[in-house]
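quick one before i forget lol
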Amino acid sequence: MSRVRGRFTVLIDLSSVSTGNEMRDNHLRTKDFFDIEQSPKMTFTSTGVRAAGDKWVLVGDLTIRDLTKAVEIEFELLGADPTGLQGEPRAGFEGRTSITHSEFEVSFGLAAEGAKVVISDKIDINLAIEATLSE
C-alpha cells in the first residue's frame, strides 16, 4: 500500500455560491447566511487521507464564519500527467461532501404554513482540484 503524504489549505470564495437561482444566491451571501462581507471565504485544511475502495477520503478542518469542524471529503483521481504543461507533475481530482449549515451557526429558517422549513439545512460542496507536486 502506498503512503500519501502532504498537507494543504484551500480558501473557497463564498461569493461563488451557486444554487441556480440568482436571488437566492444573493440572499445566501448576506448576514442571514454566510455574511460574505465579514467572512468572505471558507477554509479547508487537510489533516489526513485514507483509501476507500477505488476512491479516497480526505479528512480535514472546515472553517466557516470563524467556526471550525472536522469534515470528510470523498474524492477521486481524474488523471495525472507526469510532465504537466510546464514540466511539473500534475493531477486532477473531483471531490464532494455535504455539511449542515446549522453546524456552522449559519442558520436562517423561514417557517412556512404547517411549520415546514423552506430552506434545507444541507449544503453540498463540490470541488474540482488540480494539484502539482512540490518538495
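fyi The first helix runs from residue 22 to 28.
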